[in-house]
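Need enoyl-CoA hydratase's 3D structure for a figure. Predict it.
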Amino acid sequence: MAIKLEELEAKQGFSLQVEDGVAVITFDLPDSAVNTLSPDVGTAFTRILEEVEREPSVKAVVFISGKKDSFVAGAKLDLLQSLKTAEEATAISLQGQASFDRMEAFPKPILAAIHGACLGGGLEWALACHYRIATDSPKTTLGLPEVQLGLLPGAGGTQRLPALIGAQTALDLILTGKSVKPSKARKLGIVDEVVPTPILRAVALQRARELAEGSLKPERTRGQGLTAGGPKGLAGFFQGLANKELWAEVALEDNPLGRKLLFDQARNQLLKKTRGKYPAPEKALQVIRVGLESGRKAGLEAEARAFGELVMSDVSKRLVEIFFATTALKKENGTADASVKPREVKKVGVLGGGLMGGGIAYVAGVLQGAQVRVKDKDDAGAGRALKQVQGILEERVKRRSLTWREAAAKQAHITAGTDYSGFKSADLVIEAVFEDLKLKHRILAEVEAVTRPDAIFASNTSSIPITELAKGSQRPAQVIGMHYFSPVNKMPLLEVITHAGTADWVTATCVDVGRRQGKTVIVVNDGPGFYTSRILAPYLNEAAYLLGEGADIAALDKALVEFGFPVGPMTLLDEVGIDVAHKVGPLMEAAFGKRMAAPKALDAVVAEGRLGRKSQKGFYLYENGKKREVDPSVYVLLPHGKERKRFDAAEMAERLVLQMVNEAIRCLGEGILRSARDGDVGAIFGLGFPPFLGGPFHYADSVGAAELLRKLEHYQDKLGERFTPAPLLEEHVKAGKTFYPR
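Structure prediction for enoyl-CoA hydratase:
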């Protein structure tokens, strides 16, 4: 017996095979690396189910992906971006809900066989199936990440997941957008079984037959997964309630007072994180509550309306644009010639065992999988690097993302010493030593004397021009910048800096290395401070100017956090090191003149030995490494002493943000940046520019070039030449141009 698929179904990548009464529907979307959802996909799948329902010989259905490492990655985002109204987006949501309702009510068992990414609409699809099996592969992840794109699950996910695993657990997943591994998904009850990848199809077929025969009867209590042939009805329910945590959860969810407490607490915690800047999590919370209190029908209606509103929101548009930007960067090699291929990097040398060197050793050895040799001037420094890697791995073991055995195997990739043994075979050497050009030139000469002729030398400098560094090289074409951000194992950006003579293969290789290390990589051209350090300098300078004018430290930090930055500038100075920022100032002033001159307000602070967190004293007090309140004694070292002046929070934020945005525009105009897109990605992932604003260039377009120019000219008249508008901004105003196409 064969069921013939129509052109629509085949066009959407569906194929069907019937094996011993089980219809195996395989989804393999043409011309796409991953499977994604769209109205046409949903329509095609529904038609297949209608054919399957009519065929009496088919007793059950297995839904499986034809992609190598992807189940269904979510909705087709470019389709959502093309919508013009909230009503259109709501209609798509309603269509998706109807398709999955049809699946859930299907008279024959439908089983989802999951391998690879099962995210967003993909998980909603699986939740509508009657049984779910996932592989134990590290490539298999399950989650509803929509809030990270300014959206919420729009095909029933806000209703099905709470019903399956309980509201509290579902809230944790939906409001954060985080994904879970198969073992965790099994424990929560999101999937019913976890099996090795090679036997997924065979087990799925077997379970489908058992479901059809009735020998396997899924009985689930919230978060407890499946029991086969276990107690039924009230007996089974009360057996599940023997779990105390489940008692507490049900007590909260199943009575009005408990629900109010649950949702009030969730909202308070949510607002602490989002500060009202990201509407999607709050709307998701409201929609889940509607479903619990008024039933699934009302919940689905609320979900569709909220989905439509969010698709049209500026926040979602910015977050989706960031997603597309980072996706596009993953496909680029960092050069103008797309045909240039990266060379394989198996061995990495790291110079310097400090905080940055240890972090680089971790991402190179553990994430990239290279063999890493760290060199430091003494045994203590080499030991610190190894200990730092060990500490990160131990934390992962505690979080159960690694076993002790796996951690030990990864630690073995990294060795350390005080000489250049092991560097002879290095493909790439990354230096992370003190910011001194003479020192770097000496080390560069030493490295070139012991490495292969084709070895790449990369500097982790944050301010010294790569062109100047390359002047000390015998092979300058192989000298490049790889600017990591601290802490290296957590910060997502890598800024690759090329000078005029950098070979394309070197650039492509370093970009590829960065991606293998889990980084979002931007490539910028050489210049003092490159891009990120250059736009950060005037931002921090302006904070120091405000401090010198008598601003309150905590109030200044709060103003920028309220604007949307993850931390305020004074906290950032403590983290970076007040002395480090103080040393960068003269370099920037030498390169760019008085407009980049650092104020003298912090001279006495540095002279006093207040270096920030690393010295346990800076602008804030520290206890056991944790930041406490502002240290009131620091005010004595500032120009206004203990006398504080009240500033408008919006004005403080505006002064700092305008400095960063204006300098970013200068970088684009001078060719340091290759595109506004790269500038936005770099500022968001490297410096914490508020993602919901889309980065400096999207922010400039939203404010408007003319209004931005007016604001800068206002502060220029009031505060001096440091607010002189970027020439490119003035050109855009005259030409009526925007940084992104309208």
